[in-house]
Design brief:
heterodimer; A: alpha/beta; TIM Barrel; 5-stranded parallel sheet; globular; B: Rossmann fold; about 20% strand
Chain lengths: ~525, ~130
Amino acid sequence: MDRDEKRERREVFMTVSGAPIKRKYGPEDVADLDYQRDLGDPGCYPYTRGIHETMYRGRVWTMRQFAGFGTAEQSNERYKYLLEQGQTGLSVAFDMPTIMGYDSDHPRADGEVGKLGVAVDSLADMEILFDGIPLDKVTTSMTINAPAAILLAMYIAVAEKQGVSPRDIGGTIQNDILKEYIAQKSYIFPPRPSLRLITDIFAYCAEHVPRWNTISISGYHIREAGSTAVQELAFTLANGMAYVQAGIDAGLDVDSFAPRLSFFFNAHNDLFEEVAKFRAARRIWARVMRERFGAQNPRSWLLRFHTQTAGCSLTAQQPEVNIIRTTIQALAGVLGGTQSLHTNSMDEAWALPSADAVRIALRTQQVLAEESGVANTIDPLGGSYFVEALTDRMEREAQEYFDRIERLGGVVAAIEAGFQQREIADAAYRYQKRVESGEYTVVGVNKYLIEEELKIPLLRIDPDVQARQIERTRRVRRERDEVEVRRCLRDLEEGARGDANLMPLILAAVKAYATLGEIVDVFRTVFGEYRERAIF
Amino acid sequence: MERTIRVLVGKPGLDGHDRGAKVVARAYRDAGMEVIYTGLHQTPEQIVQAAVQEDVDVVALSILSGAHNTLVPKVIEGLKREGLDDVLVLVGGIIPEEDVEFLKKAGVAGVFGPGTPTSEIIEFTRENVKRK
């Protein structure tokens, strides 16, 4: 063999996260691996191979496309379309004013109503949003954090109006405020009262809404903000541990709420790195829950997760290529054993998805589930030298981050010191430099460019949405029992100042048609608002 | 010697997508410019006040919430009211092509979409900055 045949294309091969990858992996890389201890059969501790005995042979993952725009009527129509196309669960996107706790007629909402999701100001909007959708038949995920308790209360109220008991509704609220401070930045209140709202939800749902996933502890947004795969894994699981500790500190039995905790991860371009991340996440969580927190119920040990393909990987250039990226990312989620999946649409670097684009995204999942054969056996990559070595490395490097966060005084103290935010910003900048230098290829952006005009039709939000939404909310305020609303808001304020569980008080307020903005204002008065130190 | 270009990187609106703003702020700093980053959730008035106080040459706005047609003209009107007509205003983010013309008519010098290299933004800034 001459020298040229041994030469490689580049000096170092790296994942999209910048982790070095060897030419080959072999038995020496998994010498310490013990099958029962480190992997276990599917459905067995520590669940590295999957949380169910049958996985997709029993039931394939839930296909759940995140959707919402404009008014409640428009989004309701989109949900019905998606259900007709074979989608199996709903996922609601709210607009920025709703997410930030402002009614649509607040000055800060100007220009933002209905743009990134659907506007919900009061129970009246929620009634329209789920009109004709039986809430005992579908499960619904709601991407809402700081005001999560309010939207959950509205959902419960709509279910009751449909004659459905809260005991029979299923779904998820994101309700993960820690990653908001770290990455997505849709926070309203400071950490301590925010955590109280969250543990109030844990306690209330354990008793009254037992099928509800009370939190979706999310790495998705951490990754979108530019983190590496390891950072996503480590910061998310560290947040998860902080919530468990907060629940225990609030006096709850760990097994009363831990089975309803769920997770939400990103699936980025690097197929094997992502699969290793998902497998490591399950193993770490099972060990932490059983060994550190002493959970007895095996359901408390299970890391159940939703996956969304990486929005940040999508390109505005040659958007059709995004279908291919999304396919590979979705495959990573499936090979990693996800419980539900959102596949991004090809047009999302430009706008919220059009109905045609979202249909193709859903078809991608259907091809994976029903044509490709990848759902026929569980954890098909288990035992691969490479994937097992990567899984171990993920776990090890995550542990290093847990230790660093611990030394900083825990998750909240680390956030207040800007630790996670800076780690992510550094990684985002390193990635940008790798793309600009050509070291990392982004097809259509730094390689294989073409002259092009955008040909795909984009969804435009009707500019009248804001005016129509404001009109409805003002009508709700005129027609409701104002005395009752004031009474509910006073009770809520009193509850917030004390230590009552706030969920029943919020439920009473939403049923009286108090608006989201009014309820959040009560909390703003009592809890104050969080401000972050702007670092870059 | 020319004075160092001063850039205000502003994040108006309610969304928290600050990855792009922070990457561009760092790239400006690495290119030798002085950078002030407003942080998130700023009103147009707050951005104008920061531009006045920091005496900047460039206001670079990052918007990914779809509210650009509402927020950007408010910033530009505010700058004019404060006599800062000669400040270079740039917009980055997700801006549909049909809105680019609208923003340029409103007084935006450059609009930079997804995938733009930071080197292109820096070069454009150097070539077009009016206050020296």
